[in-house]
Amino acid sequence: MNVKVTVFLTLFILATAVSVVNSSASMFHVTRDGNFSDSGPKSSDIFFEVELSGLIDASPVVDGNAVYVSNWYGWGSWNPGFYSIDALTGEIIWINSQINGSSSAAISGNRIFVGSLDGYLNCLNTSNGEIIWRKKIEDNPEWWGVASSPLIYNSTVYVVSFSDGTLHAFDFDGNEKWNFSTGSSPHYTSPSAFDDKIYFVGKKGDEMAVYCLNESGGVLWSTEIGTTDSSPAIADGIVFIPSSDKLYAINASNGNIMWNYSIQGSMSSPAIAYGKVFVGTRDGKLICLNESGKEEWVFTANGKIDSSPAYADGVVYFATNTRNGTIYALNATNGEVLWKYALNPPEGLYYNVMSSPYIYDGRLYIGADDGKLRCFGEQILWEDEVDLSPGERTLDNGVQIDNFSALSALIAASEKGNFNVTVVNSSWGLYVSSIADIQPENNHYWLYVVNGEAPSIGAADYIVEENDTVEFYFGPWDVSHEKARYRIIIHVNLTNVLHKVSVSLSPGNVTVFSGSNSYSIGNFTALGALDGASKKAGFSYAVSDTYYDSFGLFVTSIAGIENQGFSGWMYQVNDVVPSVAADKYGVKNGDVVWWYYSTSMNDTPKTAPAVIEVVISAPDVVIDDLKVTSAQRGGNATATINITAVTPGWYVLVASGINTAGDYIAGISTVRLEQSENLSVPVIIPIPTQISEGIYSIYVGVYRLSGYPDNLISYKGPVSCEVR
Fold this sequence. Notes:
Layout: H1 8-16, H2 23-30, E1 46-51, E2 61-63, E3 66-70, E4 82-86, E5 92-96, E6 106-108, E7 111-115, E8 120-125, E9 131-136, E10 151-153, E11 156-161, E12 166-170, E13 176-181, E14 192-194, E15 197-204, E16 207-214, E17 219-226, E18 233-235, E19 238-242, E20 246-251, E21 257-262, E22 271-273, E23 276-280, E24 285-290, E25 295-300, E26 310-312, E27 315-319, E28 326-331, E29 337-342, E30 358-360, E31 363-367, E32 372-376, E33 380-388, E34 392-394, E35 400-402, H3 406-417, E36 421-426, E37 429-435, E38 445-450, E39 469-475, E40 486-494, E41 497-504, E42 509-514, E43 517-522, H4 526-537, E44 541-544, E45 554-558, E46 561-562, E47 568-573, E48 592-598, E49 611-617, E50 621-628, E51 636-645, E52 649-658, E53 664-673, E54 678-686, E55 694-704, E56 712-723
């Protein structure tokens, strides 16, 4: 695992040096290709939802940290208006109650352009929602008003009025530069732009047509497509537009139809990304084609799709305009459902979704006919408790940090949660560069707070306390952790156990040094167990031989914590405090050795400030060697078994074997062994006269006397025995 944590000052400098570029917003409103550069949510987790009342059929638009959307029509006491909502909390910032409808907003600088139900194109101030200017473009707004979503292109605002099929061009001060009328157009159609040309749908004879105009309002071409309720989407020099029965691909330069594909077209405008075209239909299908018009896959949803799909990071999102409106996320490669969210209306109600999804900063925003704006997104990546113990932690780059630091808490969380942490060591100190493979982007970085407050020092230097909550969050430096895009929440428990280690011991010795003097210590001693634990867990220890002749070796430091005055390291085996040095006290399988730093004679492993817990795992006996002599029929062979006891007691040794003819020979012996005692035990194997000559494969098995013959605890072999 990589390790990485950043000093606050470094983050501040980096954050103030980078500006935000909202490429998603500009792309969505110019070519309307539905291809968002941000990633979207990978689950149906609700980030927040806010009740606006009425119907929310307009598509939300995010700019900076605000999401803008209108509602229209309602029942009972509903609150019509155009809303500015905090994109990270769902809190309503302001409402303009004079404006409502189904037009999606377009934003440039501090100005919002949006149509309204009363037939006006409106220009509002982003900071407070006040009207800067408004122009009436529908004399008979009927049911829809100005439902067309404005287009901002080269400092000009374009919008379509449906009753006369007119494309209007306004400057930012509300002066109409020119207009072009066709007779009528679909109620919800909106203009698009590409390569200094404006594209929109209007009347042509008895049919509808896609018109291409220059920026002065001159017609460059028009192409009839039948009837449509959709808007043109443009990508790779191709205009994609559904009609009632076909999806058309039209050359954006000359208006020639390149291909068409039979569909039941709806209001849904196509999304185009990486050579794929995604479009929804009246019969509830989300269809994926390549840019040559060949079908890739088809997904059947639970009803009509008027929502325009949105593509982001390999996922296509859309919703259904049916009684139980459902938001879907599909794998863009094969159409498989990644997640879906159904509104599930009460009996007798209809919760349709006509709004199109908007993707921004890992989240999806969408309105619905239940009057709620929903934001989907996975904010909390991981939340759990971690145990921190005294001592130091060494990072991959060799830097040591305190185990009680906020950075150690993060690394402990990554180990428990199985996610990566990358820590960079810069001239400013250590700083977290990435968590869970999420790298800094734009002005977003990994920051941290403790109990909701931002420390003035880096996470490597901040020492946590019991029950602290440490949170690492991904966002701009001036955004609070509750509003961050991603959060790692760590609840800290402090423990006195530095290391809990299970060690497997085998007979033998280990060499321990005190200064220039070396000592051979048995593995099955309390000191041998500490040595094994130190090698496995990666901590150091030191011993002194000052009183070796009268007492033995005693431990002077473990894991960098040294004896000081009357405070020092002691040990306990199970519940016993031995009266001999650790190199003299034997341990066995199942024993627990506690090394604890005692500050008074009353300290125990439960009360000491630092503890090493070592659990012993070992066989009862170890067969070191097996030798068997040759023999003659009617005589005896001797199996000599070199055995070391880990657990003292009586043992049964059985030596037996078989040859290729199927004849058996066997012998048995018993022996009493003390702990760590090593003996060469002979086992006499009688050789009957009637067995065949040849080579016998001999094994030796060892049993506890109390478990014989059911529980074999160790064996060794085979060794050859020649019978003559």
